[in-house]
Design brief:
This protein is α/β, with parallel strands linked by helices. The protein folds into three domains: 132 residues, 3-Layer(aba) Sandwich (Rossmann fold); 70 residues, Orthogonal Bundle (Helicase, Ruva Protein, domain 3); 127 residues, Zinc Finger, Delta Prime, domain 3 (Up-down Bundle), CATH 1.20.272. The chain contains 17 helices and seven strands. The chain has a five-stranded parallel beta sheet, sandwiched between helices. The chain has a two-stranded parallel sheet with strand order 6-7. α5 links the parallel β3 and β4. α12 packs antiparallel against α17.
Length: 335
């Protein structure tokens, strides 16, 4: 099941006996768990019917014994196992998963790892409950995720503002959620419904004129003067604009541009479908890039970005600063 579908069922009180939440992205695991804690057992009944266990302090037998108890004067009991990846005998839960209690909602938080979906535990949970694999969102899909995330909360965001947040925060969803909550509160106080680049600049600390989004825009339009001004700004504000963040943006862009160059359909819709984008706005830099960069040039630039990344970490670099490395890379990109 998908994240949205799981949340929709929980809000409708359509619970399943077992939720096994695993994977590299903790944000979705925490969201589902918090929603279950909110919905399954009324607050007045939680002292008796809500139990939190921790993987480092328990084992599969204890989890099964706890889950097989009956709720006390309540329709359900909720059992949440946090840090379940530390339960050494986790596979033993298969005995419970095959025949779970209908009056228990068992939630397993198995973060940063996954279980083999071919094994009995996964197969059994998939039949009687929910087996959810929480995956990281790819960087280039983050702007679309931000738009969708806010839309569910009845808030709009300017495409440029979404890109600025994506470039600055990457795919750290926990941090992103906190920043978006901050902006949502600000909008509510000012009776506004759309987040703009000005809001991001004033409240998140990202310059709307000098950021990775504008740098990429300058590169794809071959605006050498603007690109160099942005790099100079980065040099003066290194804490807000670390080289690793910029290299990540450039690497993702040119990697995707290489995909576009070998795609049969290079129209806006074709690029959207090829890269899984949700907005025509996101295709503009790729359309421009196709005009100015040949496949061989892009291939070499990807190699240059990798080399710059290694040098920024001290590999074959005795004295060059991050700023000098970035200026050198920019020269290679634009000439």
């Amino acid at each position: 099941m998908e994240f949205k579908e799981i949340c929709k069922d929980i809000k409708s009180r359509k619970f399943v006996p077992v939720y096994f939440l695993m994977g590299e992205e903790p944000f979705f695991i925490d969201q589902i768990t918090d929603l279950l804690i909110e919905q399954v057992v009324p607050e007045t009944e939680r002292d008796f019917n809500q139990i939190i266990l921790y993987g480092s302090d328990t084992n599969a037998v204890n989890i099964i014994e706890t889950a097989r108890r009956f709720p006390m004067m309540s329709e359900y009991q909720l059992v949440v196992v946090r840090e379940a990846q530390q339960v050494r005998d986790i596979d033993t839960l298969v005995h419970y998963a095959k025949n779970p209690m209908k009056s228990t909602v068992l939630v397993i938080n198995y973060k940063y790892k996954t279980i083999d979906k071919r094994k009995s535990l996964a197969v059994s949970i998939d039949k009687t409950g929910v087996l959810f694999d929480s995956k990281k969102i790819q960087d280039y899909k983050m702007p679309a995720f931000i738009v969708s995330f806010l839309k569910e909360r009845s808030t709009d965001i300017d495409p440029k503002a979404a890109q600025m947040l994506s470039d600055f925060l990457g795919n750290d969803l926990s941090r992103l959620s906190k920043e978006l909550d901050k902006l949502a509160i600000l909008l509510a106080e000012n009776k506004q419904k759309k987040i703009t680049p000005d809001h991001v600049e004033q409240n998140i600390g990202i310059s709307k004129e000098y950021n990775n989004f504008e740098l990429l825009k300058a590169i794809t339009s071959k605006d050498i003067l603007k690109a160099n001004r942005i790099i100079q700004y980065f040099e003066k504000n290194p804490k807000s604009n670390p080289i690793q963040m910029t290299l990540s943006v450039l690497f993702n862009y040119f990697s995707n541009l290489l995909i576009c160059q070998y795609s049969k359909d290079r129209s806006e819709n074709g690029i959207m479908n090829t890269l899984g984008l949700r907005s025509v706005f996101q295709t503009k830099d790729y359309i421009s890039g196709l005009k100015y960069f040949s496949p061989m040039k892009v291939f070499n630039l990807i190699s240059d970005i990798r080399t710059t990344d290694a040098r920024s970490k001290g590999v074959h670099n005795a004295s060059a600063t991050d700023s000098e490395l970035l200026k050198e890379l920019l020269y290679r990109i634009l000439h």
